[in-house]
Specification:
Structural class: mainly alpha
Helix content: 40-55%
Bound molecules: iron/sulfur cluster
Radius of gyration: 23 Å
Largest sheet: 3 strands, parallel
Number of strands: 3
Order of helices and strands: HHEHHEHEHHHHHH
Number of helices: 11
Distance between the termini: 79 Å
Number of domains: 2
Strand order of the largest sheet: 2-1-3
Length: about 250
């Protein structure tokens, strides 16, 4: 092929924009969405956690209402491993399915480095941990990029921006920084999806996701609660039960 021909050759990519439907109660639309895609037999995939949340049952009802055949596959963990995906793909072909219905992954597994950081944090005494975070938060310049990027920080007016009355000092001084980070950590506990975007955008390299993951771990251990599994329930930090563990109150 000559150089002239190469210059005039067209190269292009085409992306089909998928139909996106979201909002309360939209699980009931899964069946009709699958039908609109031209599907005849749905391959419904979830892990055990999602099954226990009751979402899978609601999707099954929606599929039946739409007159869709389906087969259910649960041999995966959240954030499935490659061999689980391969098994699922084989089953999909074997079952003669033509549409896949699944969910986005849950909280991602910790990388070896994150596991190491978390283990180091957990090994500290409370006083050492306090000093560690105090040192980290001192560097915060209050650019609020972490808040802006977070899909779960969507308040019309952030508590930390209010000045009548003012809840948290807005200037990047140690006391205000500590206040901001305590508010952020408590408000995101039970909502954070572990995407780590807050940490990625932080210009001061503050390990925000380490704090997010530590909070998620505490909620799991203390209240057996994981973000996103039971969205109809109030999170443990916004509800109270007399039987709640209160040993941490000194
Ligand atoms: S890791 Fe959590 S707190 Fe950070 S941006 Fe993602 S959802 Fe928000
Ligand atoms: S930090 Fe709290 S008040 Fe501020 S936007 Fe996030 S969730 Fe809302
Ligand atoms: S992105 Fe980093 S520097 Fe900016 S407010 Fe958040 S923690 Fe502070």
């Amino acid at each position: 092929m000559g150089a002239k021909q190469q210059d005039t050759e067209l190269h292009h990519c085409k992306f089909e924009v998928p139909e996106i439907i979201f909002g309360r109660g939209m699980l009931s639309q899964v069946g009709s969405c699958a039908r609109r895609l031209g599907g005849r037999k749905v391959f419904l995939v979830s892990d055990q956690g999602l099954f226990k949340s009751g979402w899978v049952d609601r999707v099954m009802v929606s599929l039946m209402d739409a007159g869709m055949q389906f087969v259910y596959f649960d041999q995966i963990t959240s954030n499935p491993k490659d061999f689980e995906v391969e098994e699922g793909a084989k089953e999909y072909v074997k079952q003669g399915a033509d549409v896949i219905v699944g969910s986005l992954p849950g909280m991602p597994d910790l990388s070896p480095l994150e596991q190491e950081q978390l283990a180091r944090l957990e090994a500290m005494t409370p006083a050492e941990r306090w000093d560690y975070w105090k040192e980290q938060f001192t560097r915060c310049i209050r650019c609020l990029a972490c808040r802006q990027v977070c899909p779960f920080c969507y308040c019309e007016q952030c508590l930390c921006d209010r000045n009548r009355p003012q809840s948290v000092d807005t200037s990047p001084r140690p006391a205000g920084n500590m206040g901001w980070h305590i508010v952020r950590a408590m408000h995101l506990a039970g909502r954070c999806a572990g995407c780590a975007e807050c940490e990625r955008v932080c210009p001061m390299d503050i390990p925000l996701n380490l704090l997010n993951r530590k909070m998620a771990l505490e909620l799991k251990e203390l209240y057996h609660y994981e973000a996103g599994l039971t969205p109809q329930e109030k999170g443990p930090l916004t509800s109270y039960d007399e039987k709640d563990d209160q040993s941490f109150i000194k």
